[in-house]
Write a structure and sequence with these properties.
By secondary structure, this protein is an all-alpha fold. The protein is built from six helices and no strands. It has one domain. α2 runs antiparallel to α4, α2 packs parallel to α5 and α2 packs antiparallel against α6. The longest helix has about 70 residues. The chain is rod-shaped and about 125 Å long. About 10% of the residues are buried.
Length: about 200
């Protein structure tokens, strides 16, 4: 029993020191928890920013590719109509030419391709600041996408419509290249999301 009273007496005599030591330990533990929480919070904030930038780029990539497809299809169909009209009467060809010109003016006035191109370029520049290694994915660069689109449009010539096989071959070539571009982009974006 003496031992218990001695311990109790020592605790009462040193209560201030015990409280001071306990509060010091609690302060250290709280500081470590706060630093750990701050690091987790910062990581979550950066993740949110990175995922938003990546998703914006991916959305703009898909929209721009779709517009490339729409533009190719629009020009292909008008060129096909013009090629098929060669065997028609002069009046029919004149009416068709007028209709195509009017349709082309409407097509130019909407000018969606320029808007989507600009949006993609801005999203790419923003993503490049957050993901510098995105530049290694060649087909995600706007210049590569524009070259793809231009080369596809240059293949649309009047002689491509001299036979059904030739026009189908042109469509197949475009489809293969278009799908290759789209699949490459999807795979790259998937890799970038996995790296987050």
């Amino acid at each position: 029993m003496i031992c218990f009273y001695q311990i109790w007496a020592w605790i009462v005599d040193n209560i201030n020191n015990i409280i001071s030591a306990t509060s010091g330990i609690a302060t250290i533990v709280a500081s470590v928890v706060a630093i750990f929480t701050l690091k987790i919070w910062r990581k979550q904030q950066l993740y949110s920013t990175k995922i938003n930038v990546l998703m914006e780029l991916e959305d703009n990539y898909e929209i721009l590719l779709a517009e490339y497809g729409n533009t190719f299809n629009w020009i292909f169909q008008r060129q096909k109509l013009a090629a098929e009209s060669k065997s028609k009467t002069k009046e029919y060809r004149q009416e068709l030419d007028k209709a195509i010109k009017d349709d082309f003016q409407k097509f130019l006035s909407e000018n969606k391709l320029a808007v989507y191109s600009k949006s993609y370029q801005l999203a790419y520049c923003r993503a490049l600041r957050v993901f510098p290694n995105i530049a290694s994915a060649e087909k995600l660069k706007f210049s590569e996408m524009e070259n793809f689109h231009t080369s596809c449009l240059e293949k649309i010539k009047t002689e491509c419509f001299e036979s059904k096989e030739a026009s189908n071959e042109l469509l197949n070539q475009f489809s293969v290249q278009f799908c290759d571009f789209a699949n490459f982009g999807r795979q790259q974006f998937l890799k970038f999301r996995e790296l987050l």
